[in-house]
Amino acid sequence: MTNTPAEQAEKVAGVEVGERRISIPGMSEEGENLAAQTNTAADHSHGGVGESKEITAGIGSRAKRHIGFDVEGFPEPNGREEEWRFTPLKKLAPVITDAATEGEPVSYEVTAPENVTVSSLGQDAAPRNTVLHPADRAAVVGSKNTAEALHLKVPADAEVTEPIRVDITGAESGKRANSHIVLEAESHAKAVFVLEHRGSAAFNGNVEVKVADGADIKVISLQRWNDDAIHVGQHDAEVGRDAKYKHVAVTLGGEVVRLNANFRYAAEGGEAEMYGLYFADSGQHLEHRTFVDHNAPRNASNVLYKGALQGESARTVWVGDVLIRKAAEGTDSYEKNQNLVLTDGARADSVPNLEIETGVIEGAGHASSTGRFDENHLFYLMARGIPEKEARQLVVRGFLNEIIQKIGVDSIEESLQEDLENELEIAGY
């Protein structure tokens, strides 16, 4: 008898993963041993067209990863470290060295209603550095070399109907720019923040988001750089009691882009989501890393990243970490990454990681897939009279449109649809 897809789910470290929630065989309510087993389990890799065949071993708990504000605690990487092994370090040299901003390489334009406070925060001015704690060399040198952070605060109970925008425009290729942005929403506030990056620069940008109790906040980060731009960044959020948080990262431009998007909880009852869309052309390296820290009970999270690749040497990387701590009973968490390889020579690496320290959870799991067009989809469309070129366009649009619809801002969704049309023209579709 043929097994169902659920029954064929891959087993990693004794935990079933795949397109459904996990089950944990023999898991006790305490479950202290599972994290240790996960970290020392047999090697595993998720296969797929264009994906690395290298086997990845367990490397220890994400809870033990070094964080801090001391640059000396983060030596310059050599590429053998787990967190840097996929990254082209030579190209990132302009943004991971301990260097100040060179002149005024980027400009900032803030668009916000009068009830949103726009100010700046020095190194020791709260809430700066209360949410974001640098987790790698790039983040710590960016934090150190940004004297004043841009601070946007939405007051309690306010509902901002129009997006609060920060347009960041690079003026010169290769010029180092350090940036730090603090987005704060007081209790029961509701708002959408849009961070849009264009132009050329060597940009090191940290973003921290403080979401108070009952607030409903969405952060949309658009990377529409020119082809020669370099961008690294760490985006951290803290989600309050019964609050809602959504982070959407869309990366289409830039020679090398590496974003770390992370969140944790300040109390129970929070709902947090991270979505990502990336489209890599020849010569581009687009890398996204996510970390969900379930450090409080009865919270929910969902992560979904989708990417498409075309052209020789197009490269994408997604690494997703979920940590469900012992205190996080009642957690409901899921993460998924999907990649569509459009041409030969492109490569996608996808590494989902899941650690669970308690068996008292609602659900948790992860999934990863990388492949080419589904020939059944093409056949279905072409059998109904749609030419092959248009059929392929429809498949790609349908694949990526799920993420675009998460944005919820009509003007941005429409402009991204146009950008995708341009990407498909480059591919010859």
From TrEMBL:
Cited Pfam families: SUFBD_core
GO biological process: iron-sulfur cluster assembly
Coiled coil: none
InterPro entries according to UniProt: Fe-S_cluster_assembly_SufBD (IPR055346), SUF_FeS_clus_asmbl_SufBD_core (IPR000825), SUF_FeS_clus_asmbl_SufBD_sf (IPR037284), SUF_FeS_clus_asmbl_SufD (IPR011542)
Domain SUF system FeS cluster assembly SufBD core: 173-399
SUPFAM superfamilies per UniProt: Stabilizer of iron transporter SufD
Region (Disordered): 26-51
Family, as annotated: Belongs to the iron-sulfur cluster assembly SufBD family.
Protein's name in the database: Fe-S cluster assembly protein SufD
Organismal lineage: Bacteria, Bacillati, Actinomycetota, Actinomycetes, Micrococcales
